[in-house]
Amino acid sequence: PQQPRHSDYHEELVQLQYKIVVLGDGAVGKTSICMRFTEDHFAQRYKQTVGLDFFIKNLVLPGDIHIALQIWDIGGQSVGSKMIRNYIFGAHAILLVYDITAYESFQNLDEWLHLVTQTFPAEQMPLLALIGNKKDLQHIRSVRLENHYTLVEKHQMSSHFMSAKAGDAVHSCFFKIAADLSNVVLTHQDVDGTSKVIEAQIVNHPQNDPSQPQVVIKETNSRCLIQ
């Protein structure tokens, strides 16, 4: 049989794969964040995620490090599900998302965090990131910044604010998390190259049937632009 070329073999060796789990209440924008990052679009109509959806994103970090991110978008109603620990088990990073205009979504992160701490031993805790979504609605913010940063410090999380609707800071967040997992140091120029603001478009999608949970796998590619 034909042997793989050395370049192909080398590329296969350096590809890293990470499981990223996105948690938080319904309607905080988890799916919108995933779709903005993987597909560069925003759906105006809200569609509840039933169970979970999968997204796959391939990207390249400085040093020609190839990364495959498997993103698990967990439905907000799954917090009481018997399957929730199976969903989050084995995660390399967990993104805890709240809506900056909905204080209850921030309060309920305690319950999501409890699930995480009950699933992982302290020495195997995944990277945690706190994400305040809908930063385009700063004028009606209901979660104070000091509350956000207090939670970040308490649980040693990375801190992010973004707008899935505008595309603001979504890409840079995921690139930073991928770099942290890969022990790759990004310069400000690297991060700036991934920050994209994209005009929102109206996209209609069929509704999920609640009686038939769906798993959707979507794969896209991206490259970190280094000047």
From TrEMBL:
<dbReference type="InterPro" id="IPR027417">
    <property type="entry name" value="P-loop_NTPase"/>
</dbReference>
<keyword id="KW-0547">Nucleotide-binding</keyword>
<dbReference type="GO" id="GO:0003924">
    <property type="term" value="F:GTPase activity"/>
</dbReference>
<dbReference type="InterPro" id="IPR005225">
    <property type="entry name" value="Small_GTP-bd"/>
</dbReference>
<dbReference type="InterPro" id="IPR001806">
    <property type="entry name" value="Small_GTPase"/>
</dbReference>
<dbReference type="GO" id="GO:0005525">
    <property type="term" value="F:GTP binding"/>
</dbReference>
<dbReference type="Pfam" id="PF00071">
    <property type="entry name" value="Ras"/>
</dbReference>
<protein>
    <submittedName>
        <fullName>Ras family</fullName>
    </submittedName>
</protein>
<comment type="similarity">
    <text>Belongs to the small GTPase superfamily. Rab family.</text>
</comment>
